[in-house]
Amino acid sequence: MRPTRKDAYKLFHEGTLALADVERNGIKIDVPYLKNQSEKIKKRIQKNQDLFIQSELGIAWKSVFKEKTNFDSGFQLSKLFQILGIKVKNITEKGNISVDEKSLNELVKSIPEIDILLRMRKLKKLEGTYIKNILESCFDGYCHPSFNLHKVRTYRSSCSEPNFQNIPIRDKEIGNIIRRAFIPRQGRKLLECDYTGIEVRIACCYHKDPVMVSYIKDKTKDLHRDMAMQCYSLDKDQITKDIRYCGKNKFVFPQFYGDYYVNCAKNLWEAIDEMDLKTAQNIPIKEHLSSSGIKTYSAFEKHIQKVEKDFWEVKFKKYTEWKKLHYKRYLQYGYFDTLTGFRCSGLMSRNDVINYPVQGSAFHCLLWSLIQVQNILKEKNMKSLIVGQIHDSIILDIESSEEEEICEILKNIMTKKIIEHWDWIIVPLDIEIEITPINGSWNEKKEKSK
DNA sequence: CCAGGACGCGCG
DNA sequence: AAAGCGCGCGTCCTGG
Hints:
By secondary structure, the protein is of the alpha+beta class. Helices cover 56% and strands 10% of the residues. The chain contains 17 helices and 13 strands. It has helices spanning 6-25, 31-53, 56-65, 74-84, 101-105, 114-137, 172-179, 198-207, 210-217, 223-231, 241-256, 261-274, 285-291, 297-315, 317-333, 350-379, 403-421; strands at 27-29, 138-139, 142-143, 146-148, 158-160, 182-183, 189-195, 335-337, 343-345, 385-389, 393-398, 431-435, 446-447. Strands 10-11-7-12-13 form a five-stranded antiparallel β-sheet. Strands 2-3-1-6 form a four-stranded antiparallel β-sheet. A hairpin with a 2-residue loop joins strand 2 (138-139) and strand 3 (142-143). It is globular, with a radius of gyration of 25 Å. The two termini are 40 Å apart.
């Protein structure tokens, strides 16, 4: 760890103490539920395996690998594909046949039993990585993950034994099963408080791009929607939730992290069929693109290249200037300092240099807030407890009667006090609060009405 | 037999 | 010229 200033040292010193409290508090686990689920999931895995063995692919697998057959082995599967002459588009970094979910999904049409294999993988991940691990690390019904501040290059935190920061949520079915196991103490609620779009906002504090700042300050503006419009050549009234999602996750964020138009174009294009994208007026996107003169993939790629050029050279000119200057300074000095006072040095790629300071400082906003909230809870002798942290969110186990006071404290610290504390924060910060019912589990969290 | 590489996959 | 950032953890597999 290389703090360059006293306040940076202080942040991590106090952060360590506060996180030690969080670790000691622990999060309550519904152990009987989890044990029951473990059995159920194991049975489902077995059922799928029985089904797969009898499938054409399963039989071929057995005839090739005999007693060594192992349906968990990606190595065997890629060998099998080679032998059977099954073509797979994607390859791994080391040049081997890729058998990840995306590659396999492309084969489902011609080999339907692949679906069973994918199902098995999902359930095994759930049981092996989550259910089993949480049960094993549970002590007296409480799980006490370790929150580390000394292990990440960007000065973010990490979490282990178990890793509380990667509990499934994107896959609804899997997410519900596992999050149902995280519960509040008797008669209480779980509360999760997120910083909304913290990395984009903290990036503004570095590049100070006026266009980006106005996107954040002006609530009628919407960058993800605007970029979705440009990428798919649409008007405002043609945008749907799915189309905006693609603008956000297949153009804007990848671009911020340093991706380039070839990948973006590919992902935006593939999403059209995968998600069956249609305009709000129900016109299929490819049809729409075609009538706007973009008839082939190659034309689409050229179009996205132009969108990218406009994005960085026209729209966010000042952002681009910062990236250039910041990287140049790194090349000159061999290091750079974050706004929060930490030094990053050593060999880094251009993308690393641009991303590290933002990722680190964004987390430091969360850490600083967590420390303040923890101190207030102690000073006021409150019963609510902080039980976890996930990069841009704090999770509390709250006494119901303290709910309103807790929300006030969170809002005050995370959106007001922090701006007073760090004068380099030049954009407003905002939070979102989600709460479970009394005795409700983590999968029942709902946004608190304001 | 163990350590570590490779891969896959979960989250922000 | 390069070509998306950060983690932890499970399994399989190879090489010492």
